[in-house]
Amino acid sequence: MKVIVIGAGPAGLTAAHQLAETGNEVKLFEAGKEVGGLARSFELWGQRVDCGPHRFFSSDKIVNDYFKKIVGEDYTLVNRLTRIFYRNKFFYYPLQAMNALGNLPFTTVFEILFSYAKQRISPIKNPQTFEEWVTNRFGKKLFSIFFKNYSEKLWGIPCSKIDADWAAQRIKNFSLLEAVKGALFGNTGKHKTLVDQFAFPKTGTGMLYERIGEQFKKANGELHLSSPVKKVLQDENGIATGVELANGETHLADQIVSTMPLTLMVKSLAHSPSDVKAACDKLYYRNTILVYVEINSLDLFPDNWIYVHSPEVQHGRITNFRNWCPSLYGDKKTTILCLEYWCFDNDDIWKKDEVSMGKLAEEELRIMKLIKPTDKVLNSYLLHIPKCYPVYETGYMKNLSIVQNYLDSIKGLMVIGRYGSFKYNNQDHSILMGLLAARQINTGKDQHLWSINTDSEYQEQGEVEYENE
Ligand SMILES: Cc1cc2nc3c(=O)[nH]c(=O)nc-3n(C[C@H](O)[C@H](O)[C@H](O)COP(=O)(O)OP(=O)(O)OC[C@H]3O[C@@H](n4cnc5c(N)ncnc54)[C@H](O)[C@@H]3O)c2cc1C
């Protein structure tokens, strides 16, 4: 079969690689200059860094087997340490009951326990929003301390407007009770949220994808970098027949796999009905600004990354690349941190230049006392990531379903990936989508691609419903 894959992130690369290895004629078009998408790694000030923190974790066998097949022994097991910074104190994340309660004033602890008990006695029935879902699991007080600020920084909308789906995907069946059990009996390995070690490719997350790219080419796959796709072409019956690139070239195929932003792809289709276009208009994404700073100091803090809940600073997360694996920084004697800011296209911060963002990052690190007064910021670097997070605003599923139903009616077109299918995917979800998309094309058996990363129990038992080959 002739297959065109749009986008060389984890989802597109995996699909393309599998399809090429199984004898299909595959062309992969990537808008950027390198492979890996959001999970790429790159050289900065003499060392390798990722786009923010990238922890790889899956309990799905086919994803782990694939990871091992590509990476082999070239990975390190990293001990996870991630904490929340709030009111100038550090709280372990995932929440550890004794640490959380011990760090708070007695009156607050009492309020937390009281509001949790109240919620257990009369929970909100059928929670629809993030606020309701988390309040049920942790009580109102703990919600307001540990979930509200961060989530509102990330999404830019109130928690009462964020869909409960996001909590179900990210927090899964974790609760205050589970945190207390974890504190008393240790991590039983049951909750993904509690996993404290992860595999990390020695030269950064992107190593995995660079290798997949190489193997794809070895299997006669055609990789076209700096080749953005403008639209997916259809014949008079609506069947997808190929793509048109931004430079005007057209390429034909029997099957298209798209990982470009869902809304843009659907609106590019000549036959999209107006209600589908209208549904697309209501689906939107949040952008990320990454500000990298190099500090002339070591041992700033021990975490892989810190969630910053404090409302007095604008960023929401800091990665410390010194704490992942030594093969990243070699014999360098400086530390690279990466601060994440989230915004929409029209926000002023999206238009700020590298110098202003570098200054803002330094100011905020000093406010939080994460760097000492004598520490110097040697360099700063700015990276814009548009359409980084598909926003799960309450009711988004109604619009997404309209788009999904329409796409299911188009022969020869499949959408997968994070912004490709409008799902808050981690790497493992996107890899799984890529593997299963290839399997669906090769076997003709439906692999239920839309249902990946929707089930709140997904990965807890390592169970995903797909058809065996
Ligand atoms: C700051 C940050 C931290 C993260 N942390 C983690 C983590 O700890 N663990 C984890 O597992 N995941 C993490 N992720 C998520 C992970 O990066 C994504 O899940 C993964 O990269 C999604 O892969 P994808 O292929 O679906 O999409 P993407 O990686 O977005 O790839 C899509 C590709 O399509 C290309 N493209 C777009 N439009 C076009 C077009 N018109 N034509 C051609 N190509 C196009 C893009 O350039 C891109 O290369 C994080 C993401 C971010 C941003």
Report on the structure:
With 469 residues, this protein is α/β, with parallel strands linked by helices. It folds into three domains: 2-42 and 205-281 and 396-451, FAD/NAD(P)-binding domain (3-Layer(bba) Sandwich); 92-186, no CATH class; 285-390, Polyamine Oxidase, Chain A, domain 2 (Alpha-Beta Complex). Helix content is 35%, strand content 22%. It is built from 16 helices and 19 strands. It has a seven-stranded mixed β-sheet with strand order 7-6-15-16-17-14-18. The chain has a five-stranded parallel β-sheet with strand order 9-2-1-13-19, covered by helices on one side. A three-stranded antiparallel β-sheet has the order 10-11-12. The protein starts with a strand and ends in a 26-residue tail after the last helix. Mean pLDDT is 91; it is low at 189-194 and 456-469. The structure holds flavin-adenine dinucleotide.
List cofactors, ions and other ligands.
Answer: flavin-adenine dinucleotide
Shape: globular
Q: How many separate domains?
A: 3
The H-level CATH homologous superfamily of the largest domain, spelled out, is FAD/NAD(P)-binding domain
Q: For the largest beta sheet, what order do the strands appear in spatially?
A: 7-6-15-16-17-14-18
Helix content: 25-40%
Low-pLDDT ranges:
189-194, 456-469
CATH secondary-structure class of the largest domain? Alpha Beta
Largest sheet: 7 strands, mixed
Number of helices: 16
